[in-house]
Amino acid sequence: MKNLLLAALATATLFIAGCGNSSSTSDSGGAPNPISKDNGKPIRVGIVFDTGGRGDKSFNDSAWAGLERAQKELGVEPKTVESKSEKDYETNLATLAESGCDLVIAVGINMQTALKAVAPKFPEVKFATVDGDVPGDNVRSLQFKEAEGSFLAGYLAGSVSKSGKIGFVGGQEIPLIKRFECGYIAGAKTANPNVVVLPAKYANSWNNADLAKAAANVLYSDGADIIYHAAGASGLGVIGAAAEQKKFAIGVDSDQDYIQPGFVLTSMIKRVDEAVFQTVSDIKNNAFTGGVKVFDLKANGVGLSEMKHTKDKIPADVLAKVEQVKADIIAGKIQVPSKQEELDPYLAALPK
């Protein structure tokens, strides 16, 4: 028991050393919330990673890239905490808030329930949630138009598929991931109304590459030659299956084209890094406001990778059409569906 107590104290000391003590004030009513730094110490930013953690080559790594940039360019002091399971979320968020961080970032929509419980207890601390929707003057919800970027991925897949069948593997069947799926289907069918989008598979995990790989192999066996994944670290299994089957995967969140060069057709990049950096910058400039901040195609919040390893395999006219579709979405000429009740009428209105 004594050893356990010592271990707990040591852990708490590490947290405090990472973020230290700070004094801060806040305003209400949506105005910028200034943070006093009279002690001359740097802004302290804590980040709680979702399960899968750093090294997922997906949204956790993208969030870390944004904070790492803030450390280099803005001189902030970072503190990171891994979450082994969902039961860790609330404890991890509260621990960082208690230890003096000026901003605490919750990475992943599954953390929003925990943040709703924690944020009101620490009104002097600023929070940001990636993908979540958490009310509060001290919380900024960083959201993305994933369907818009996924539409481009689907349009490309529908244009270049040789088998005429494509697939999708998600991490969890939740509204967030349905946005990826619906946009992908709409884009594919816009490019080629005859393309078959096989029934989606779900790994039901963000951190089990084996399950996602097995799901992908089923889709490839059923004739798909391109599979888009939105499954966090689990999606690495889809990319591995693509290489083994000598077919294509489409990456997500970060530029994953390099993981299996030549077998990742493109990646739908979700600029979590930019959203994190902008939020930290606002903290430093006393310009933080709560509420929802949306990153869409127009704001370069989502989009396709440069396709360094595959562009030579894609016809020039297809690449030109993808760029035109991007321009049409930004101009409002194409209204991208993001849920099933929007997708069905969209597909019904397409030329047969």
Detailed description of the structure:
This protein is of the alpha/beta class and 352 residues long. 41% of the residues lie in helices and 18% in strands. Helix 6 links the parallel strand 6 (165-170) and strand 7 (196-197). Helix 2 (59-74) runs parallel beside helix 9 and helix 5 packs antiparallel against helix 10 (316-330). It is globular and about 60 Å long. The N and C termini lie far apart (71 Å). Residues 1-18 and 20-36 have low confidence and may be disordered.
Brief summary of the model shown:
This protein has eleven helices and 13 strands.
Q: Can you give the mean pLDDT?
A: 90
Overall 3D shape: globular
What kind of sheet is the major sheet? 7 strands, mixed
Number of strands: 13
Uncertain residue segments: 1-18, 20-36
What are the secondary-structure elements, in order, as H or E?
Answer: HEHEHEHEEHEHEEHEHEEHEEHH
Helical percentage: 40-55%
Number of helices: 11
Oligomer: single chain
Task: Please compute the radius of gyration using only Cα atoms.
Answer: 21 Å
Helix and strand layout, with pairings?
Blueprint: H1 2-19, E1 44-48, H2 59-74, E2 77-81, H3 89-98, E3 103-107, H4 112-118, E4 126-130, E5 139-144, H5 146-160, E6 165-170, H6 175-191, E7 196-197, E8 201-202, H7 209-221, E9 226-230, H8 236-245, E10 248-253, E11 264-270, H9 272-284, E12 291-295, E13 302-304, H10 316-330, H11 340-348
Parallel strand pairs: 1-2, 1-3, 3-4, 4-5, 5-12, 6-7, 6-8, 6-9, 9-10, 10-11
Antiparallel strand pairs: 11-13
Helix pairs in contact: 2-9, 3-4, 5-6, 5-10, 6-11, 7-8
